[in-house]
Structures are given as structure tokens and as C-alpha cells.
Amino acid sequence: MTGLGRWLVSPAGRRRTWGAGCAPWGLLAEAAAEAHGRVPLWLDRPLSIAPGLGVSTDYASFAELVVETSGSLHEAGLARGDVLAIVKAHNIDVIALAQAAARLGAVPALLAPDFAPDTIRTLLHRLGNPVTVADDAAITRNGLAFPGLTRRLISVDGPDAGGTALDQYRGHRVPPPAPRAEHELVAVTHTSGTTGVPKLISHSGASLAGQSLVQVLGGRLLLGRRDVIATCLTTAHARTLSGLATIAALGLPHLAMVDPDPASAAPLMARYRPTLIETFPNVFTRWEALAEDPAAPLANVRIFLSTFDAAHPRTIHRMLASSRRRLPVYAQAYAQSETGAIALSFRLSRRHAGDARHVGWPALAFNRVRLVDPSTGAVLRRPGRTGAIEVRGPGLFPGYLAEPERTAQGWHDGWWRTGDLGSRRMDGAVRLQGRAVDAVAAIPDYLAWEDVVLARLEELDELVILADPSGSPVAVVTTRGDRPLDAARWAAATSDIPGLGPPLVLPWEQLPTTATWKVRRPALRDQLFPHDRTTGGS
Questions:
Q1: Looking at the predicted structure, is the pLDDT value of residue 19 above 50?
Q2: pLDDT per residue over 154-208, tens digit each?
Q3: Any residues with CB less than 8 A from the CB of 286 and at least 6 apart, and which?
Q4: Of 196, 245, 488, 504, which has the maximum CB count within 10 A?
Q5: Which contacts (CB < 8 Å, 24+ apart) does range 139-142 have?
Q6: How crowded is residue 483: how many other Cβ atoms within 10 Å of its Cβ?
Q7: How far apart are the first and last CA of the chain?
């Protein structure tokens, strides 16, 4: 299958015909507008590159913005084969910039603005000190105006922080589209950086099509023309790339949020009444209180979809209970940026979410999974045995940018090493035990125990169990509203967990998190125990 999965299996509507071997990722916005017309697109904040669009726009206007911006970038000197680094506050104008660059045959590299300045500068060096588009906050915070760090620095806000204003390049001729071939590099994202400097992930047209295919087919099966999609995702994440392709193919009204604060998200969801909501598990956890919101912002949701990380059972239960639809579904995709969705699971019960560490069936994501002995690499064929998870599938990435040796280390006899530990059930479902680098020897099933304690203590927003320098388990928690935690309730809730003492209570803002708002456990361990540097990698 060519042409970005034959324009993602040719959804209904008008279709532009792409040439064989073409991967028109940079033309998706135009193709979606051509196929579906002026479908509503709502935002939770105006776009930095087009504040005049406001927060209520449509597919066609977004496509026009992409085309106009490609002309601006061309005038700024961006050419086919160049890399365009994008470092700005999360919003879908990150995607507009990425699409505009890809339309020219350039390669957009999406960098999360939340990384430490040293990390941002390191990634820019790895990208070859490219043309960079940033906002003034990122320029100032990361010192992006330092001579030689970028080939050209363009600011979406103006010249005050040291970049050239993007507006200076507006109004120039728009060159004809020149998308890259399906086998070529079309975009760059990065790993979460949970254990060090993130790795840069290459995406080809073929790998993005492979990651998007299961989403599009699932959307066709489960969604109709009356459905409304809402997302709350970080726009520098790989999920945004495949998600863009999915939304473009389905052509449904879309509420695109980037602020996970319940106070921001609830009024928008109450107004637009989405029927499918996708965000990361930790955001759904923050939204648990919305189940009691008098405006019932989640009442119309038929499908709750979380990606990449396993959700807590309490969160699944609360989300399903907040819907007033007859049979709401909580769908969970166990995924990685390098692979796309690895396995899918579905939960229907409002009463009991079951073991949330059962992350689903690889076949539903068009993948194959095997478990191997972490020490010997021998394949573990008996169900129930814990091993290292390896995967094969259509969405596997081409490799880490400019790191062929590290890429080679990730392959094992044609299978990709995920770095996760887990087991298989008799029915083939995968049970996730955790990252190998995060293992807590005293509590091997630490993720499951975190789920248990969160279910017992509703006042907790987050719980992370780590190993201290001596190997003993230590708990770090955040509480709702930063309220004090009752020591007696904690002791009763954890009495059956060996060796776990009183927790360290922190505000959520002090937890180091990834682009999916997942706690970076090695970074948290370094934060708590700065003189014990036993972790590495990226």
C-alpha cells in the first residue's frame, strides 16, 4: 500500500489521487479540507501564528494557514531536504508549521518546549543546528538566539527576543507542493527522555501510515457523522503525527485542546459535547473530579481513549461512570513512539475496571508481540512468565536519527525491544509490569500496587513507587488540591505492601514529567537522591 496508506484507505468523500510511492504527509490538511469541507475545528487557545483565527475555525481555514505558512517558510530560506526545528508552546499551530515544512519537502522536528535548556540545545546540535521556529518564551528560556545554535531563528511572536519575526516573511509566493517519498524521512519527534537526553525518532511516510491505519479503521467502525472528537495532547509528541492523519481521514468535528487543567477543559467539553475523547492517562486522572461537575462535561462521551501509558483502574471506573451514554467504552492503547500502538484493550464495566495492567491484544493493533528472557534472549513461550517485550508491526520507525548503533541495539532477530517487562495471558493479551529501568526489586509488580493504593485512597492524584539508593521502596504522592495526607489512612492502605513506609508528599508541579505528562521516574529518583547517579540511557 502506497500514498500514506492510499490516503488512509480512501475514506468517503472527494479524493485527490496521489502518485505511487508518494507519502503526502505534508498535504494532509489540504486533503482533509478537499475531502470534508468546512468541518468545525475548535481550540482552547488562539494560534500563535494566526491569532486572528480565534478559537473557532474549520478544516479549510487550517489548510489555508498551512499553505500560507509554507510560503513564509520558503521565503525564510527553508528548502527541500532541510530540517525545521519547532520549539514553541503546545498548540496545533505546531502541526500547521510541521505540515507547512513537509509540504516543501523539508523535515519538521517537533521539540517539546518543556525540556531543560541544555536538552533543547543538545537536540538542536544533533539536528545540525537547523532553521528553527520558536516563540519568545522558548527563545529566552533556552538561549536560542546564541550565535551558531541555529541556522536561522524565526519567532512566531516578533523580534523582541532575538529571532526574526515570522510575519516578516508573509505574503510571498507559495511554491508548488513537493512532498517526500514514502520511504524517506518525513518528520522527527523524540522519546520522552525518562532516563536522560531524549533520542530523536525518525518517521517515514510508511511508518506513519502503519501507525495510523488501525486508528482509521477503528474510527470507521465505531464513529459516525454525528460524532465529535476531542483531544488533549502535547503537540510535540509522536502521537500527534498519527493522530493528525486519523482525524484528517475521518473528517469529524474536532475540539483540539492542549491545556489539561480541568478548569480549562470542562467548559469546552460541556459546550461541544464530544462523543470520543483522547488524552493521556494522567490527564484522565486529573479529570476524575469532572464526574461530579454539575455541567456534566463528560456525559455524552461514548469512547474514552488513552494512549501510550496504562491507566489506573480508579480512573477508568470514574471516566465510565461520568458518561450518561448507554454503553460507554474505555479503550486503552499500549504504545510507544517507535512503534505506534502495540496492543489494544477495551473496558465496558462502570463498576470494575479489572487489572489495568492487562493492556490488550497485539492482533487488534496489527502487531505481533513476543516475550524473551532479559538475560539470555531466549523466547518465553509459556503464558504467565515475565519477560522483556518485543514487537513487530507495520508502524515501526526507521530508527533513531544519526544514531545507527543505538538503533541496532534495539533490534533482536528482527524484533524491536520495547524496554518494557510483561507477560502473556492464555488468550494472548499482554500484561505490562513496567519499564526495566524502573524496576523495584522489593516490589516487582510495583505498577499494580500503585493501582491498588490509588483505589484505596481517593484523595491521591498520583502515586509513584521508586527504589532508593539502598534498593528499598519509597513512595511519592500528590494529593488533590495539595491537601495534607492522613498518616493513619496511608498506613492502613499500604499495610500489605512489604517495606513501604510513609510517603513523600509533593505538589504535582514538582514532579518531572514527560511530553505525555507521565512521571519521569529516573529523573524523580535523581531529584530525591541527587548523590546517587545509577541511571542512564534516554
A1: no
A2: 999 999 999 999 999 998 889 999 989 888 999 999 988 766 789 999 999 999 9
A3: 260, 261, 262, 461
A4: 245
A5: 139/163, 141/113, 141/117, 142/87, 142/117
A6: 9
A7: 33
Query: Residues 6 or more apart from 323 whose CB is under 8 A from it?
Result: 298, 299, 300, 301, 302, 304
CA 111/CA 126 separation, integer angstroms = 12
What 8-state DSSP symbol labels residue 335?
Answer: E
Decide if pLDDT at 22 tops 80: no
Q: Give SS3 for 60.
A: helix
Looking up cell 470534508 gives 36
Paired sense of beta strands 200-204 and 399-400, if any: antiparallel
Q: How far is CA 438 from the centre of its chain?
A: 20
Distance CA 17, CA 405 (A): 39
Give Cβ neighbours of residue 470 (< 8 Å, ≥ 6 apart). none
Phi, psi of 25 (to 5 degrees): -60, -35
How much is the pLDDT for 242? 87
Average model confidence (pLDDT) across the chain: 89
* pLDDT value of position 433: 85
CA atoms within 13 A on the CB side of 419: 16
- Side chain identity, residue 142: N
Q: Rounded distance, CA 64 to CA 70, Å?
A: 10
Q: Please give the average per-residue pLDDT across 362-377, as a whole number.
A: 93
Cell 513496567 locates to 434
HSE on the CB side for 109, CA within 13 Å?
26
Phi and psi, residue 87, nearest 5°: -130, 95
Amino acid at residue number 388: A
Beta-sheet pairing, 152-155 with 131-134: parallel
CA–CA gap between residue 189 and residue 286 (Å, rounded): 26
Nearest to 53 by CA among 36, 70, 72, 66: 66
- Cell numbers linked to 334: 499500549
Q: Which three cell numbers stand for residue 535?
A: 541511571
Q: Give a three-class secondary structure readout of 243-279.
A: HHHHHHHHCCCEEEECCCCHHHHHHHHHHHCCCEEEE
Q: Compute the distance between CA of residue 312 and CA of residue 294 in angstroms, rounded to an integer.
A: 24
**To which H or E segment does residue 110 belong?**
strand 107-110
Quick check: 336 and 396 in contact, CB under 8 A?
no
Q: At what angle do helices 28-36 and 93-103 cross, to 10 degrees?
A: 110
Helix (H, G, I), strand (E, B) or coil at 148: coil
Rounded distance, CA 43 to CA 254, Å?
9
Q: What is the pLDDT of residues 112-146, one digit of tens each?
A: 998 889 999 999 999 999 999 999 999 999 999 99
Side chain identity, residue 279? T
Strands 303-308, 329-336: parallel, antiparallel or unpaired by DSSP?
parallel
d(CA 232, CA 230): 7
Q: In sequence order, what are the residues at sequence separation of 6 or more whose Cβ sits closer than 8 angstroms to the Cβ of residue 336?
A: 308, 342, 418
Mean pLDDT of 245-270: 94
